Amino acid sequence: MMPINYLAVLAVSIINMLLGWLWYGFLFAKTWIRLHGFTSKDLEKAKEKGMRKTYLISFISTIIMVLVLSLLLNLTGAARISQGLMLGFAVWLGFIATTTLGPVLWEGKSFKLYLLNNAYNLLSLLLMSVVLVLWRWFSRNLN
Questions:
Q1: Furthest-apart CA atoms within the chain: distance in Å
Q2: How much is the pLDDT for 141?
Q3: Do residues 102 and 140 touch, judged by C-beta distance below 8 A?
């Protein structure tokens, strides 16, 4: 088993935050706001409050997720992109898609919002898995 590459974890965490910024900031911002039922007043309050703390906590959460994903890739010996994709999909299906369905079933949250968020979660895990596998491959083969 290879040791966890903390530089790769940091780089993948940054990539994931950029994906979130693109997904929720440009591609689907209006849809996400509408599905949440946010008003312009809600958005102004959030801007006034500041988002530094929220982004910091989100980044720490992302680092933890990438660390665990890296550990799982190591434990399973995933060395090919296809293996990384399968593991990323399995983690999404087994833990993310199932857990995040609860608010739809029990709290009346929007199924469309569930789909929007989980499409992001799936893409995110697949991208993280591929980058981590490729990083490991390049680290092994270039040294």
A1: 54
A2: 84
A3: no
Inter-residue contact 124 to 58 (CB < 8 Å) = no
CA dihedral for 94, 95, 97, 102, sign (positive or negative): positive
CA 30 to chain CA mean position, Å: 20
Q: What would the pLDDT profile of 59-95 be if each residue is shown by its tens digit?
A: 999 999 999 999 999 999 999 999 999 999 999 999 9
Distance CA 138, CA 109 (A): 43
Task: Name residue 92's amino acid.
Answer: W
Q: Are 85 and 69 in contact, with CB atoms under 8 Å apart?
A: no
d(CA 80, CA 25): 32
CA-based Rg of the chain, rounded to a whole angstrom?
Answer: 17
Question: In sequence order, which residues have a C-beta less than 8 Å from that of residue 36 and are 6 or more positions away?
Answer: 113
Q: Which of 60, 27, 25, 58 is nearest to 43 (CA)?
A: 25
CB 131 within 8 A of CB 139: no
